[in-house]
Amino acid sequence: MPATLLAKNALVLVTMDGERREIPGGGLYAEDGRIVAVGRAGELPASADEVIDLAGHVVIPGMVNTHHHMVQSLTRAVPRAQDGELFTWLTSLYPIWAGLTPQMVETATLTAMAELILSGCTTSSDHLYIYPNGVRLDDSIRAARRIGMRFHAARGSMSVGESKGGLPPDRVVEDEGFIMEDAERLIAAYHDPARFSMLRIVLAPCSPFTVSHDLMRETARLARANGLTLHTHLAENDSDIAFSHKTFGMSPTEYVRELGWVGRDVWHAHCVKLDEAGIVLFARTGTGIAHCPCSNMRLASGIAPVKRFRAEGIPVGLGVDGSASNDSGHMLAEARQAMLLQRVTYGPDAMSARTALEMATLGGARVLGRDDIGALAPDMAADFVAYDMSALAYAGALHDPVAALLFCQPQDVALSVINGRVVVREGKLGTIDLAATAARHNAMAAELARLAAAC
Ligand SMILES: [Zn+2]
């Protein structure tokens, strides 16, 4: 990593700072991965260890992905899971995921992260909740370190199998005592709470239909004792709501209120069916939401009332969700879908391109509990990406290059800088061998499918 970095001369630099400034001809200067100055050429130092000319490019803060299951990139477009809703989709896939190995998790995480980084994402959370055959969260952490992505690794869990009224097969659930011990081990080994941290641990039971009340409570206790954030799935679709009423005799809102799963240190994925009481509760407590429009459409879960969430002041970020219910991990495409999908419910001015971009950057940072990423300003992390506006997709859209990023066919980045380190240059990811990763990934996906077919 160069000690000092100067990126200059952008067509437009989108800061997402307090005034939401967009600077024509803008650039930034960073030292040791931290932004020192943002502005036009005259406002920046004239030289640095590394100087990058961004003429013809739009620069934005690196996007923040708040919900993913990266291992699922091994099971994209699985024929029998193509056309089901959440519960049928899950029960089709659990038996395949039961064959995952540590090597598969590492490779699938590299694939998913490469895809995210190339799309303009620089920080991601990943919710790994299935641990068969010796799989550990360490396997995804290894991948994040290899590829150079800022990472919030969520220690997921499932402890209530079919025989106890849960959804997953018994052979993929874990003992609750072990889950808690493993979480403590991970916190001690990896969690870095410092500003500009590249790695934080998150505690994240999979969902109300896969763990016990006790595990939810114990997890929240352990997270809060260590200053960690909490994450799970909530109120995803109608069957999820029906399960909650039938099994617990309460709505998802009542469930999280009773278990203390609300607050600025908690974010829930989806919330497509969050009720009025839930919206009020989340707004009052600052509880965050990961909105995943592609997955919600793919599984026909519904349209989350994001315009309402935002109007009430609820922190909302975007998530591509697992690659088995989106089958794509493109952050810019996800932001575009978020913008388009709100319009279906609330009309053509429901969400602007800039609002979608704000959710993908600042919104995601806030949801993950960070104030050092998501904007380009002094004392923020040097996480930024640039798109080449000479691409065919943007031809005719340069009246408003920033809006073009969202309205036109989503493109990959020309440049990505994460923590001051150039990870993508001239459109090429430099930290891993992409072709070899994809080949290994495909062989592993075939092996997983073969194992499941033999069961
Ligand atoms: Zn999910």
Structure explained in plain terms:
With 455 residues, the chain is α/β, with parallel strands linked by helices. Helix content is 37%, strand content 20%. The strands form three sheets. It has an eight-stranded parallel beta sheet. Helix 2 (102-119) crosses helix 14, helix 11 packs across helix 12 (353-367) and helix 12 (353-367) packs across helix 13. The longest helix has 21 residues, at 434-454. The model has no long low-confidence stretch (mean pLDDT 96). The structure holds zinc ion. The site of zinc ion has 6 residues, from loops.
Chain-wise SSE layout:
Elements: E1 4-8, E2 12-14, E3 22-24, E4 26-31, E5 34-40, E6 50-53, E7 57-61, E8 63-65, H1 86-97, H2 102-119, E9 121-128, H3 137-147, E10 150-157, H4 176-190, E11 199-205, H5 213-225, E12 229-234, H6 238-248, H7 252-259, E13 266-270, H8 276-285, E14 288-291, H9 293-298, H10 306-311, E15 316-318, H11 331-346, H12 353-367, E16 384-388, H13 401-407, E17 415-418, E18 421-425, E19 428-429, H14 434-454
Helix pairs in contact: 2-3, 2-14, 11-12, 12-13
The protein binds zinc ion.
Zinc ion (ZN) is lined by residues 67, 69, 233, 269, 321-322.
* Assembly state of the chains shown: single chain
Broad structural category: alpha/beta
Overall average residue pLDDT:
96
User: What share of residues is helical?
Assistant: 25-40%
Q: Approximately what portion of the residues adopt beta-strand conformation?
A: 15-25%
Shape: globular
Number of helices: 14
